[in-house]
Amino acid sequence: MLYQDIPRIYTAIAEWGSCLVYLYILKKENMKSVHFLIGSLFMLAMQSIFLTLTGSVTEILWIPCMMIAAGMMYGFLMVGGNMKPLGAAYCCARAFVLAEFAASLQWQMVSIVQTWGNQSLWVEILITMVIFGGCFTIDIYLEKDLLKQNYLEQMTVKEVAAAAIMAVAIFAFSNLSFLNENAPFASRERADIFSIRTLIDFGGIAILHAYQM
Q1: Which residues contact 157 (CB under 8 A, 6 or more apart)?
Q2: What are phi and psi of 184, to 5 degrees?
Q3: Share of the chain above pLDDT 70, in %
Q4: Which pLDDT tens digit goes with each residue over 6-65?
Q5: DSSP character at residue 33
Q6: pTM for this entry
Q7: pLDDT of residue 182
Q8: In angstroms, what CA-CA distances link 132 with 50, 88, 106, 127, 189?
Q9: Rounded Cα gap, residues 21 and 44, in angstroms
Q10: How far is CA 41 from CA 46, 157, 165, 192, in A?
């Protein structure tokens, strides 16, 4: 089987879902309003359309497109959670790494099942629900007692910059290894890269979690 990169629609859903994780932890009461529901669905639609339309861009444009996608996540967190700029930036860095891990793990599982000869769309949807739901639920459980509104309000520029640098480094090692076989941690076999990038993303979550503690 020829291993393809993660379909952009799954990346969009993962980014949207990871933002909801942090909005749930910090502003759970806001999520009950009709305005939030409409805004959230609008964000999902915009993220999905943008990432799908830019799925075939060249490598030079790929990074700016991902920066725009991260900017959309930042806007969603800032507006949806009424967060201050530094707090929203910190949550965005963490949400971005969580989304990368969830998307890479989900597509790795889907690809493995497809190599067994199962091409069913329903199986793919089931895997997506289980992986995304599991990743987001576990993250809420791990962070609900650590991540508080007053913690974000005390954020400094240095702390946010450190989290952002870690997120960018994790993203670079994880994704560039797929785009270029000469990049660090890359492999000529794309099946190997699926495991490598998922482990890198998982390591990123662990590092950011330890940093917060």
Answers
A1: 86
A2: -55, 140
A3: 78
A4: 788 999 999 999 999 999 988 777 778 888 899 999 999 999 999 999 877 776 787 788
A5: S
A6: 0.82
A7: 53
A8: 21, 22, 7, 8, 26
A9: 14
A10: 9, 31, 29, 35
